[in-house]
Write a structure and sequence with these properties.
single chain, alpha+beta, two-stranded antiparallel sheet, 11% strand, globular, DNA damage
């Protein structure tokens, strides 16, 4: 039944030459609410690029995540099993990950609270009906990569995240952790030398913001238990964290259905193009278009992005820099 953990058995030393069985973790099954459910859509926003060392999606639909939980490192493997989601977890954080599993998978989300008022949104929901908003309950794992994404291309940000996690994180526990790394803890982030940030392509403004955040890591993590507005306000107390970054975090850590990412270079034009055929929309125009969906504006944006109605790119792409070579 959902919520029960499989007991650990005492380790048995294999005979010489015998095949070593895969180490078992703690297990849990969870039954999603009735209706369509797409595991890839639910967990997709947690992936920071194709080379993210903390996240792997398998061809069979399974997802592996390496997390730094309040109880320590943990690896989570989730996949569909009939109508259920089957999960297995390893490491000191295994029990915490399984306790949080339903919320991670969108149990607290209410897709029926959203009523599409535009054909693009109605069609996107019809084509991708299994969308639910995840809630990780972990702030720094979303905050740090979001800071790295400030004012740079996603290619640069993903590269920096990958390099820093691989260099300063630790291998993820358990057999499902093979090839994955758990991100560094707050103390390790704080001790990364300035030249290593530079080698990863992270300028001093972004690295200083990360350092300010990890020095009050406990206060940051408390935001995961707050209402999204209060959580965003808590995050924005840190110099260098503004509405853009705070929204990106509470969308993931708090499962906030109304958190709109403002200050993004491309998003207003995408929303404007999809909902009003206005590829030159700014933040004010985007918020006006999203006003009918107040309370569910983040979900509306997710559906816009899933619709595929992205304006043709005419302006030059943002230049990809590599400050490590400067």
């Amino acid at each position: 039944m959902a919520g029960r953990f499989a007991p650990r058995s005492a380790p048995v030393s294999p005979a010489r030459g015998a095949a070593v069985p895969r180490a078992r973790g703690l297990t849990r099954r969870w039954t999603p609410p009735e209706g369509p459910y797409d595991l890839g859509l639910v967990l997709g926003p947690l992936r920071r690029g194709p080379g993210d060392p903390t996240f792997r999606a398998g061809a069979d639909g399974t997802v592996r995540r390496a997390c730094l939980t309040p109880d320590g490192p943990g690896t989570l493997l989730v996949g569909r099993s009939g109508g259920d989601v089957a999960a297995e977890a390893w490491g000191p954080g295994a029990a915490w990950l399984l306790d949080q599993l339903p919320e991670l998978l969108g149990a607290a989300d209410d897709p029926d609270a959203f009523t599409p008022r535009h054909r693009v949104l109605a069609e996107a929901r019809r084509r991708r009906p299994g969308l639910r908003l995840c809630r990780t309950g972990l702030v720094l794992e979303s905050l740090i990569p979001s800071v790295l994404e400030q004012k740079v291309t996603t290619v640069e940000a993903y590269r920096a995240w990958r390099q820093l996690v691989l260099r300063y994180g630790e291998p993820a526990p358990g057999p499902a952790g093979e090839g994955l790394h758990v991100m560094p803890d707050a103390r390790t982030w704080a001790l990364i030398p300035s030249w290593e940030w530079h080698k990863a392509g992270v300028d001093s403004k972004r690295s200083a913001t990360v350092l300010r955040a990890v020095r009050v890591a406990r206060r940051m993590e408390e935001a995961a238990g707050m209402e999204p507005e209060r959580a965003a306000a808590r995050l924005e107390l840190i110099p260098g964290i503004g509405p853009w970054t705070a929204a990106e975090v509470v969308q993931r850590a708090n499962g906030a259905p109304d958190a709109v990412t403002v200050g993004d270079l491309h998003l207003p034009g995408i929303v404007g193009h999809a909902l009003a055929d206005d590829r030159h929309a700014d933040d004010a125009a985007m918020l006006e278009l999203l006003a009918p969906y107040e309370g569910q504006r983040h979900r509306a944006v997710r559906l816009v992005l899933l619709s595929g109605r992205v304006p043709a790119r005419r302006a030059p792409r943002m230049e990809i820099r590599n400050i490590a070579r400067l």
